[in-house]
Fold:
Amino acid sequence: MKKDQSIQKAVYAIVGPTASGKTGLSIELARLLDAEIINCDSRQIYKHIQIATCAPTKLELKEIKHYFVNELELDEDFSAGEFAKRAKQKIKDILKRKKKVLIVGGSGLYLKALIEGFYEDEISDAEIRSELNRKLESKGREVLYKELMKVDPETASKMDSGKTRRVIRALEVFYASGKKISDLQKINTKPEFSTIQAGLYYHRPVLYKRINDRVDIMIKNGLLDEVKKLQDKGYSYKTHNSLNTVGIKEVFMHFEGALSLQEMTDMIKMNSRRYAKRQMTWFRKDKHIKWVDMDELQGNIGAISYMLNECFR
Structure:
């Protein structure tokens, strides 16, 4: 009997908030499945910020083949749309070699772009939107409209330059996804494979403690030295979007004298907790995710791997 093509082409995904233990579990599971890992993290793809992003270690990368880790320079632009395009090709290549595929990460928009295709009304990035609003206040609406004319002339030509909210929305979609609204409204490209998703769930107090503990470990492991090297080379979170992220911008602010060491540490923890909350809000909307209660399994790697493997059956 011929096997169902959708089952043959199924790939697996582990999702969850920051500090939920996705990286360690993915290594264990990749061993069991004989899988290669598609890393779905908008910051771990960049070089020079391994401590700040808690990227897989050199040993982990040597043991299990990873993609989209430590690949780009900090001044290179990258988007969810570009990730989806490249990742689909990598997955196709992996499946051709009869290997399993394990997608791992916490960047919800990147994952959605990869496994479902883009729906324009679901693309959102608060940081990009805030930056565009700041530009509106400082430079005026005409500057934003000219910017839209440059990146998406088809959309801009159908829009009154005075409709500032619509202009900002079109720019937000473009910078968040790497795709024009005018293109997204015409097509929605879906991949040629199905995805089975497992999510790592912790009760909030436990997750927040994990986040706080991890920040302390990051600092102990040399976070400040890592960011100082970037500063010495002329990099800044103000000029490089790759560095405008939790755990990096706060250290820059400390070096600039805006925060004491303790204030910096507390702010990284607070912003990381807020980020985790946003991640869970995003993932809870996806009814396809099978959640694994990590508190119930009490850190037993073997039991967790077994439960994840069951989710993927």
Residues 1-8 have pLDDT under 50 and may be disordered.
